[in-house]
Design brief:
Blueprint lengths: L2 H8 L3 H7 L31 E3 L3 E4 L11 E7 L26 H13 L5 E5 L6 H18 L5 E5 L6 H10 L2 E3 L7 H4 L8 H18 L8 E7 L6 H15 L3 E6 L16 H16 L21 H7 L7 E2 L5 H4 L7 H11 L7 H7 L3 H4 L3 E3 L2 E2 H6 L27 H4 L2
Parallel strand pairs: 3-4, 4-5, 5-6, 6-7, 7-8, 9-10
Antiparallel strand pairs: 1-2, 2-3, 10-11
Helix pairs in contact: 3-4, 4-5, 5-7, 8-9
Length: 431
C-alpha cells in the first residue's frame, strides 16, 4: 500500500465523513473534529473553503498555526494509525469494527508532509493515533514524526499532537517539547458520563491527570506549546446536560488553563453499540459554542446562563439573548453611561464595540444611533435594551430612517432548520 492510499484511510476518514452528511460528521475519540463553516457577521467575509476537506486529509480550517492565501489554515489532519484496541461505543475506529486498517511510519509521514508543504499545499500538521496496548509506543511514533520535521526538515510551523489516554509523564513532556498545541479529548463531562461511552477509559487516571501534567509542564516552561491545550466533548451520546458540559468546561478553563473546548454533536455510526441513538441536533452544538464564548470572553459563569428544567440551553434563542430577556431589572442601560462589563451584557454589543464606545465617550457625546452602528453595535439586537441620552433607543429609531428589523426575542435571528451550525467568534456572539 503506497503513502497516498494510506493517507486516504488515515486522513481522518475525511471523504467518508463528508459523504456521511452535508452538515454533520461522526465524532471520534482521538481524531480532530470537523469544524463547520463559522458564522460570520455581514461585515466579515466567510473564510473561503473553511471547514472543508480536500483529498488526502488536507483540511482548510479557520483556526490553527498558519494561513493560506485564501485566508484559511491548511492542516494535514491524519492518524499515525487507525488500529485501535479501545472500545468507545460511538467511535468509527473502535476495536472490532470492520474497517480498513493501516499504519504510516514517522519517516514516510514526515517526508510526505514536507513534500506537501514545499508545494504550498499545507501549512501545518494535526497528528493523532489509534490506541494499542503499547500506548507509550504509539505516542512515541507521533513524537518521532514531529522530531523529524523539527530537526531534519527545520519545520517551524504549526504542529498539533494528540496526548493519548494513559501515556507516561515522560511521553507528555516529549510531546509538549515539539508541539505547538496538544489535546486530549475528554469526550464527556464526568466519569459517570464517560462510563456510558467506554468501558476501558478512566476519566481521572487516564485523561484528566494527563491534562494536569500538561499544565505543569507549561507552567514550568511558558515557551512550550504556545497554542496551549484543548479538549473535545461528544454531545448527546452519554445523557449529559448542557449544564454538565459547561460546568466542566468552566472548571477546565480555571484549573488547568484550557485554551478552548470543542463540542461535537453525536452522529450514530453503523455497527457500533450506540448506533440506535438519534443524532444530536446541530443547533444544540451551536448553542454550546455560543455559551462557551460567554464564559471565555464576556464574564459569564455557568450559573448565570439560562437552562430549562432538563439542564439544556434554549434552542429557540441564543444564550446571551436568553439571559437579557430573563433579567429585565438590568435594562434599559444608557449607552452613554454604562460601564464596559454591563455593555457586554447587551445583545448586539461585543467586546470590540464596547471598547470603542467607552473610548469614544471620553472625547465625544454619543447622541445618535448612527454613531453606535459605526462602532459595531447591531441595533436590531441592542435597541430594546438601550437608552441614548436617557431616551429609549427604540423611540429614537422610530423617529429616524435607521429602522432595525423587528426582532422576536424568542426566535433565533435568521435561523432555518437547514442552516449550518454556527460557531461565532468572540466579537460576534455578543451581537
Amino acid at each position: 500500500m503506497d503513502i497516498l492510499q494510506k493517507l486516504g484511510i488515515l486522513g481522518d476518514g475525511a471523504l467518508q465523513e463528508h459523504e456521511l452528511s452535508a452538515n454533520q460528521s461522526a465524532p471520534s475519540c482521538f481524531t480532530p473534529q470537523r469544524i463547520p463553516d463559522p458564522y460570520q457577521h455581514h461585515r466579515n467575509p466567510v473564510v473561503k473553503g473553511s471547514g472543508k476537506f480536500l483529498p488526502g486529509g488536507i483540511h482548510i480550517s479557520p483556526v490553527g498555526g498558519g494561513k493560506s492565501a485564501s485566508g484559511g489554515v491548511r492542516l494535514l489532519k491524519v492518524l499515525q494509525t487507525n488500529i485501535c484496541e479501545f472500545d468507545c461505543f460511538y467511535c468509527e475506529h473502535r476495536a472490532g469494527r470492520d474497517v480498513p486498517r493501516t499504519y504510516v511510519s514517522p519517516e514516510e509521514l514526515a517526508r510526505t508532509f514536507m513534500t506537501l508543504h514545499q508545494k504550498r499545499l499545507v501549512d501545518g500538521l494535526f497528528l493523532s493515533s489509534g490506541i494499542t496496548k503499547k500506548i507509550d509506543t504509539m505516542q512515541e511514533r507521533m513524537v518521532q514524526t514531529a522530531e523529524i520535521l523539527r530537526t531534519r526538515y527545520r519545520f517551524r510551523g504549526y504542529i498539533h499532537l494528540k496526548i493519548l489516554p494513559g501515556v507516561s509523564l515522560a511521553a507528555v513532556e516529549e510531546t509538549t517539547r515539539l508541539a505547538s498545541r496538544v489535546s486530549l479529548n475528554l469526550e464527556a463531562p464526568t466519569p459517570q458520563h464517560l462510563a456510558r461511552l467506554s468501558a476501558k477509559k478512566s476519566f481521572l487516571d487516564d485523561m484528566l491527570t494527563r491534562m494536569v501534567w500538561v499544565k505543569r509542564v507549561k507552567d514550568a516552561d511558558p515557551d512550550r506549546i504556545p497554542a496551549g491545550q484543548i479538549t473535545q466533548f461528544v454531545v448527546g451520546a452519554a445523557g449529559e446536560t448542557d449544564h454538565d458540559l459547561l460546568a466542566a468546561v468552566d472548571r477546565l478553563y480555571k484549573q488547568i488553563g484550557l485554551r478552548r473546548a470543542y463540542f461535537s454533536a453525536f452522529s450514530p455510526v453503523p455497527d457500533t453499540p450506540l448506533d440506535h441513538l438519534p443524532p444530536t441536533p446541530l443547533l444544540r452544538q451551536n448553542r454550546l459554542y455560543q455559551a462557551d464564548w460567554l464564559l471565555r470572553f464576556y464574564g459569564f459563569s455557568p450559573t448565570e446562563l439560562v437552562f430549562n428544567a432538563e439542564g439544556r440551553l434554549p434552542l429557540a434563542v441564543d444564550p446571551k439573548m436568553a439571559w437579557a430577556a430573563n433579567h429585565p431589572e438590568f435594562f434599559p442601560l444608557d449607552a452613554t453611561k454604562a460601564d464596559y462589563e454591563m455593555l457586554l451584557r447587551v445583545p448586539g454589543i461585543g467586546p470590540t464595540s464596547a471598547r470603542r464606545l467607552i473610548e469614544l465617550r471620553r472625547s465625544l457625546v454619543v447622541t445618535d444611533p448612527q454613531s453606535l452602528t459605526r462602532l459595531g453595535v447591531v441595533l436590531k439586537r441592542a435597541a430594546p435594551f438601550l437608552l441614548l441620552q436617557g431616551r429609549p433607543l427604540t423611540s429614537i429609531l422610530s423617529q429616524t430612517r435607521v429602522r432595525p428589523a423587528q426582532l422576536d426575542l424568542w426566535s433565533p435571528e435568521g435561523f432555518q432548520p437547514s442552516d449550518r451550525p454556527l460557531i461565532l467568534e468572540p466579537d460576534e456572539i455578543g451581537r
